[in-house]
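Researcher: Re-running this chain for the archive, since the previous output was lost when a drive failed. Same request as before.
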Amino acid sequence: MARLHVVALDARLPAWAEAACAEYAKRMPKGYEVSRLSLKENKVKSVTKGMRIVALDERGKDLTTAQFAELLKKETAFVIGGADGLDPEVKAGAFMLLRLSSLTLPHALAQVVLLEQIYRAATLLTGHPYHRA
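Model: Regenerated structure tokens:
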């Protein structure tokens, strides 16, 4: 089973975003499990210890869906920063910096986009028709 974690810092989601994130997490194909955590910045390292960290950052790599799907093959924590981004120490210790978009996204929308992309990548890996290349 692939365990995936979405770690959002100082994030309170509006009801619409919470509902969308929960829906995508619930839809995950068999063999994939997504947990969602909201933390303070100083807790990231203790919660993600031993996990591969993918830090979301505007200067990160752009990936295709197929490339992104490869990240789901190992336990991974996707970490979304607060209003001021992520602490440089968190980014320095990350396996990868990932950019969701060249556009600036509001925090709530970034979480929805990330959860949808995790769902899409998992369906791609399981042969489900949701993803159309």
